[in-house]
Records
---
Amino acid sequence: LRCLVVMMSFSRGRTACSAPTGIADADLVSCGEGPSIAIGANCTTMCQPDYSPSVSSLVCEPDGTLSPATFECLEQLCDAPTGIPNSAQIACFEGPMVLPGATSCTSRCQCGYVPSEVSLNCTRGE
């Protein structure tokens, strides 16, 4: 039996990822865990009120990069109005959800009724 010397070299790798910066409508620190994320840990994406992140989390990879690299904060969808007397079952012609900015809600009523507002706009989930 012989014991041989094993030569090992260690490279100095990264130990953390930085939270993404410069994301429109994101919180000042875009990860719920703070500005620095440990290798192998998740970054819980954070947006301003009335906005939702395009992905719920980013992973800090062993090479010190996030995957995916970034995210977007998107305006929340609007629910079609409910509980309006004499409205159609779904009060918007476009359906039960309305995209912010892209479309408006074209009001719908039951037969024999007309809406007081022809269309409603969706802004940041309201």
Note: Confidence is low (pLDDT under 50) at residues 6-11.
---
Amino acid sequence: PDKWHEMAQVYRPEHPRPIFQRKAWLNLNGEWHFALGSAKERSPPQSWDGLINVPFCLQAELSGALNQLTQQQLRDAGLHGPPLAPGLRRNQALWYRLELPVLPRAWHCMRILLHIGA
């Protein structure tokens, strides 16, 4: 297997803010689909560029994402050459997609709050 698949595991499985942890919670860290696109586009992409290991940002080696982009995509997004940390160009957007797992039966009558932090 390649380096990306060796790293494809759930990092940071603990609750990010233990003081707020409840009995019923679900960690969504792991492999998500991602795509680079235009910031003007309001609809989700029709195709995805690859998988990104959440909670890592696009530029982090542990995200595994940059290895899946072409040199042209990296240049278009302003992500070529060091340092990569400044991020995407203003006209670029980064989309994420995750199909949620089947929720526990006990959750079916509960109010569910989805909190996404960056």
Note: The longest strand covers residues 30-38.
